[in-house]
Amino acid sequence: xxxxxxxxxxxxxxxxxxxxxxxxxxxxxxxxxxxxxxxxxxxxxxxxxxxxxxxxxxxxxxxxxxxxxxxxxxxxxxxxxxxxxxxxxxxxxxxxxxxxxxxxxxxxxxxxxxxxxxxxxxxxxxxxxxxxxxxxxxxxxxxxxxxxxxxxxxxxxxxxxxxxxxxxxxxxxxxxxxxxxxxxxxxxxxxxxxxxxxxxxxxxxxxxxxxxxxxxxxxxxxxxxxxxxxxxxxxxxxxxxxxxxxxxxxxxxxxxxxxxxxxxxxxxxxxxxxxxxxxxxxxxxxxxxxxxxxxxxxxxxxxxxxxxxxxxxxxxxxxxxxxxxxxxxxxxxxxxxxxxxxxxx
Amino acid sequence: xxxxxxxxxxxxxxxxxxxxxxxxxxxxxxxxxxxxxxxxxxxxxxxxxxxxxxxxxxxxxxxxxxxxxxxxxxxxxxxxxxxxxxxxxxxxxxxxxxxxxxxxxxxxxxxxxxxxxxxxxxxxxxxxxxxxxxxxxxxxxxxxxxxxxxxxxxxxxxxxxxxxxxxxxxxxxxxxxxxxxx
Lengths: 345, 182
Description:
The structure holds two protein chains of two kinds.
Chain A: H1 2-6, H2 24-27, H3 43-60, E1 74-79, H4 85-96, E2 100-105, H5 117-126, E3 131-136, H6 141-148, E4 152-158, H7 164-177, E5 187-191, H8 198-209, E6 213-217, H9 226-235, E7 240-243, H10 246-250, E8 255-258, H11 274-281, H12 285-288, E9 296-298, H13 311-314, H14 321-340
Parallel strand pairs in A: 1-2, 1-3, 3-4, 5-6, 5-8, 6-7, 8-9
Helix pairs in contact in A: 3-14, 4-14, 5-6, 7-8, 7-14
Chain B: H1 3-21, E1 27-32, H2 36-51, E2 57-60, E3 91-99, H3 103-113, E4 120-128, E5 140-144, E6 151-156, H4 158-161, E7 165-170
Parallel strand pairs in B: 1-2, 1-3, 3-4, 4-5
Antiparallel strand pairs in B: 6-7
């Protein structure tokens, strides 16, 4: 499976006659109507997303970074939770593809008057929404929306469950910066508040599927339940280690991804204090020195500088944090483009 | 067409392009993905051989500009655009393998003007099979091939398909599932 994701095996392996209809363009492709999580994506799907994102990077580098691929499509962005980069990233991505964008923040909508999720989804569909980008504080909420929405639902983060576009942009960023363009066999560390992190959960799927040597590291209270997952992953041939030993985790690491300490989700008792967390688990220049020279530093944002990551590391030469943001636009353009080709229900 | 006929047509196209431009100043060749790209490179190689000048060559992917994206069953796979810097003020010669409805060329011109304002856009094709649906014509044609709509023109090139050749095939009515863009 690893070789297929990272190798040159393309989805265009189907032999087709070379007529002027360019039939190879119809012979392959994307079959998912929604993007709710990454666990349903095959190696070929991941490869197609990455290659399409390459084309979107090229579009972003143009003097006019706009193409008409989604002209006349209504992309509605419905966020029940605060967000800057994901919401703006989806909006910029949709606009770069010439879609019409409608933005709804739950805090200023009829949700505050007690409208249910189902009613809201039916309403935006009746108002013309064809693609629905959704973030919700309840895990699984986008699955409910997908059951009633006639178009495509893109999960922009649901509770602790999944953040598929983040995992895909992280994989894309790693592949474009690692020698050989592959994460296979690379030691990748996810450091921090794994327990509350949908980013970590989605990254576990894509990175282990792509053959990475994945390490999860943090205080034991923020790793509960992941030992069992790691055990099941190992049984399925995935490399997946859970530890609270920062030194062991960072040793010779190729990539270190720190996660935000989610103060808003932190029930009392999980951490003694932020200062103690920073002292024991924060990514400092001294700790990073234990990783492979030139190891890549990533953070999905927003950052608590001085807590999970030191300011000089976040802004340092090894940091890819702003690159992640740019790649996020390319990945979301790729997904909007691919999903737009799947017929409505 | 045989490999030799394709070679002669390519050489003749290169001479015509230089003659029309009265030289190679400001000339640029842009192949349309996918078989227009190797054709553009061959024409550039022929110009280099006869004129001693390397004309810039680029590749243009028109996928995002297709007018049938809502009609095809799945999104076409994007193959990538790579243009030489600065098309503004240049004479851009678009190169493609087959000219059919003209819709590909319409899309290519829309894509091109997003990169700048060329002095002129010209069109060179290996095969013109007729049946235009838009007011578009080629400036340079390798071979005019009268066809019916039920026929397929198969162009294969060594760079993309392993060998050179052009054939016409009759296909059953049902095989023409999607109205071609090119």
